[in-house]
User: Which sequence fits this backbone?
């Protein structure tokens, strides 16, 4: 790009960074973020969501950094963290994370609940799944087809 006189913008940096995250090349991600900042672009929620998705171990540090920079976690960030924790079978941590997020004023949506419920079912924690299902219904949250299919089987 640079050879053709085209300068990367924030979107270009984010796309490159997301690709490196998917490939597990976190050192490269750091370089892209540094170049992004050098070019005058600030990391945004998309930047942090990609990094969190690529590196769960650093997720909470990155979320703290987001807060210091005035970027609030959005529902996508919340759901990304919950999903990654469930994939790693850290269900207790995923649930505790949602409790803390709720206390901070974040609202759990059908994706959040569905991710936790499916995680519980996949790990033979049916009672926890059913408790969340009841909580979800009490709050008037409509579930996805995927979650309902777990109850049929």
Assistant:
């Amino acid at each position: 790009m640079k050879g053709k006189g085209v300068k990367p913008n924030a979107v270009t940096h984010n796309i490159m960074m997301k690709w490196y995250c998917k490939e597990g090349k976190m050192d490269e991600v750091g370089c892209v973020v540094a170049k992004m900042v050098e070019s005058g672009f600030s990391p945004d929620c998309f930047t942090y969501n990609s990094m969190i998705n690529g590196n769960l171990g650093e997720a909470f540090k990155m979320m703290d950094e987001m807060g210091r920079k005035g970027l609030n976690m959005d529902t996508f960030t919340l759901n990304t963290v919950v999903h990654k924790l469930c994939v790693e079978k850290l269900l207790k941590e995923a649930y505790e994370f949602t409790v803390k997020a709720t206390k901070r004023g974040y609202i759990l949506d059908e994706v959040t609940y569905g991710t936790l419920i499916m995680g519980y079912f996949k790990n033979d924690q049916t009672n926890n799944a059913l408790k969340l299902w009841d909580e979800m219904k009490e709050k008037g949250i409509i579930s996805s087809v995927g979650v309902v299919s777990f109850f049929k089987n």
Remarks:
- The longest helix spans residues 10-22.
